Amino acid sequence: MRIKRFGAVASTAVLGALMVVMGNAPASGTQSTLRAAADTAGVKIGSAVSGKRLDPAAGEDAYRQWAGAELSSVTTENDAKWKYIEPGQGSFYWDDTDRVVEFAEANDQEVRGHTLVWHSDLPDWVGQLSGTALRDALQHHVTSIVGHYRGRVDAWDVVNEPLNDNGGLRTGAGQNGFWGDQLSASYIADAFSWAHAADPQAKLYLNEYGIEADSAKARGLYNLVRDLLDRGVPIHGIGFQTHKLETTRLSGLADVMRRFTALGLEVAITELDVRVPLPVDAAKLERQANVYGWATEACLAVPRCVSVTTWGFTDEHSWIPSQYPKWGAATLLDERYAPKPAYQRVLQLLSLGRPAAGPVAAWRLDEASGDVAADATSSSPQHLAKADAGVLGNESRAPYLKAFKGNGVNAGAKTCEDPAGRSCGSAIRTDVSYTITAWINPASSTADQVIATQRGVYRQAFTLGQRSGRYYFTIPTTDSPSGIDQTLVSTAAVAAGQWTHLAVVWNNGWSHAQLFLNGVRDSGSALWNNGADSWASTGQFLSERAPRDADSPGPSATCGCTSGWHRMPRSRRWPRRP
Ligand code: XIL
Fold first, then answer.
1. Which of 49, 52, 75, 78 to mutate to test the pocket of ligand 1 (most atoms within 8 A of CB)?
2. What pLDDT was estimated at residue 8?
3. Confidence of residue 402 (pLDDT cuts 50, 70, 90)
4. How many whole angstroms from 161 Cα to the centroid of ligand 1?
């Protein structure tokens, strides 16, 4: 979850002490290539590539140029698989893999080698071996290849897809259990040890699919890897393949990644693609962009997630149509290399960089005097100032010195009021998951009041408030007059005259909100699954105060809606003070 923080609030009488908003800093500029954006974010952006297509003689100029310009990492899609690289026992074919490595060196890219041990794409001769002969052949295979590219391949998928869907070792023909049947689980530790001996600098990965959320398979892998580490096996990373559908709700990926990084491992997204049922339409591509976005966001949110690699980058060359008939369009570019919405999404998210590790704004409310609460975080401060009749005043409750006193309607606090004009804008990035917390002390249990809100162009990106004796949290489906409010209403009643700690957790992957009162989930309150996601907003953040005409034009006279706001020329929005 991304985090930003906001300080204080109140309701009609006295009010809140510290308010915290967890989210992400609002987006700054978008870079011009994925690679430039990924560099800023401190992550690699990669794709599976083909050595034959990278050959200048192949005439695939667009392919070569795009890969050189946009990627900072390349993975051998098929060239280093066993049946291509060692088609006959002891006889190796290096040319195609060499070409990938040379291309990467010419373009200053990282190389990920895929893959040393897998049940698929084995040459027939391997299937005829067993026992010691098979083990020896495996050792020779691993040692020869890793040794051949020693110092030139940064990371190897040493073992690919070793587990069945229950999280156990693949065994039995029905599970493609060739390696487990022949050599038991020992082949895994052996392969890592041999690879490490052949190139001690290379990062050694176990690569798997279907582990992108908490599941029996993810847990089985966790147990396997923890055991390998306990035994001193040189394993350095976990690859999350991430082959998904456009309807996938990719939630929980960052959490699973963190479980592995807590073991001291790095992680990477290694084979990302998002297939759609053909024919393609705009809505499918939009959903696809979401899934690409969630994957990218997950990697950025996990400090030791080192790269996002897609499995191909143009729909002209993707494994999906041949593997999944009637499906396709799974990559970032269409067949003519035109960027799809998913490309723009990934570019935007990478440009934004990794989220702040802690809150990105915090209002301590400990100023000795004045009406402005300074943001205690340093990166891009968002100061909060009293609005109209709001008061930043003393409040006796220790340890907080002050609180904003407002009335939830036209008095409270807002951003964009820093006298020094240092910052003006939104406090929270709203197109991702975020948390808002506030201490409040409502004067009335029945009043209709805003506790916190942030504006988009036409609508508020969210509103947390109280109405008819209940707390509510609303997100309109779109930032337009026709956006439909999605609302959570608390089962618990508003408690007047009491300090209450309020927290709303918005999970964008699930379009799902939860409310916590004094740390306990308001379990009966409505939440919505499979609703619309939240959207980006760059407007002012307000606390204890509904947006007013003075802040932005009022509701449209013609739109017929009650809560819409007119677009205003950019130059006139939130002018900075001299
Ligand atoms: C796929 C390739 O993209 C295809 O070209 C090939 O025909 C089959 O393999 N998981 C993996 C990859 O680890 O090696 C697979 O690549 C896709 C699924």
1. 78
2. 36
3. low
4. 11
| Distance (Å, whole) CA 536 – CA 351 | 15
CA of 116 to the centre of ligand 1 (A): 13
User: Are the C-beta atoms of residues 471 and 9 closer than 8 Å to each other?
Assistant: no
- pLDDT tens for each residue of 307-358: 999 999 999 999 999 999 999 999 999 999 999 999 999 998 898 888 766 6
Give me the amino acid identity at 442.
Answer: P
Query: From the alpha carbon of 209, which atom of ligand 1 is closest?
Result: 10
Cis before 279 (ω within 30): yes
Q: Is 497 left (phi over 0), alpha (psi -120 to 50) or beta?
A: left
Question: Pick the residue with more confidence: 317 or 498?
Answer: 317
**Ligand 1 center to residue 320 CA distance, Å?**
9
**Nearest residue to 24 via CA among 308, 419, 296, 306:** 296
Quick one: DSSP state of residue 572? G
CA-proximal residue: ligand 1, atom 1 (nearest): 319
Q: Going along 78-119, which residue ranges are E strands?
A: 110-117
Give the DSSP letter of residue 458. S
Question: Three-state SS for 9?
Answer: coil
- Is the CB of 78 inside a 6 Å radius of any atom of ligand 1? yes
509-513, long-range: CB within 8 Å, 24+ apart, which pairs?
Answer: 509/249, 509/250, 509/251, 509/252, 509/294, 509/433, 510/249, 510/251, 511/486, 513/473, 513/475, 513/488
Cα(544)–Cα(14) distance, rounded to whole angstroms? 11
Phi, psi (degrees; rounded to nearest 5) at 254? -60, -35
CA dihedral 307, 313, 315, 319 (to 10 degrees): -60
Nearest CA to ligand 1 atom 13: 160
Token pair for 185: 């689980």
Is the separation of the CB atoms in 388 and 429 below 8 Å? Answer: no
Q: Are 320 and 309 in contact (CB under 8 A)?
A: no
Output the pLDDT for position 417: 52
Sorted by sequence, the CB contacts under 8 Å of residue 66 that are 6+ apart come out as 313, 314, 333, 337
Catalytic residue IDs: 161, 271
Structure tokens at 421: 């004009």
Verify whether ligand 1 is closer than 6 Å to residue 319 (CB atom).
Answer: yes
pLDDT value of residue 53: 98
Nearest CA to ligand 1 atom 12: 77
pLDDT in tens, 198-210: 999 999 999 999 9
- Does ligand 1 lie within 6 Å of residue 431's CB atom? no
The rounded Å distance from CA 285 to ligand 1 centre is: 23
Calpha distance 246→276 (Å, rounded): 5
Which of 319, 322, 324 to mutate to test ligand 1, by most ligand atoms within 8 A of the CB atom? 319
Question: Which residue from 237, 359, 221 is spatially nearest to 309, judged by alpha carbons?
Answer: 237
**Is the link from the previous residue into 115 a cis peptide, with omega within 30 of 0?**
yes
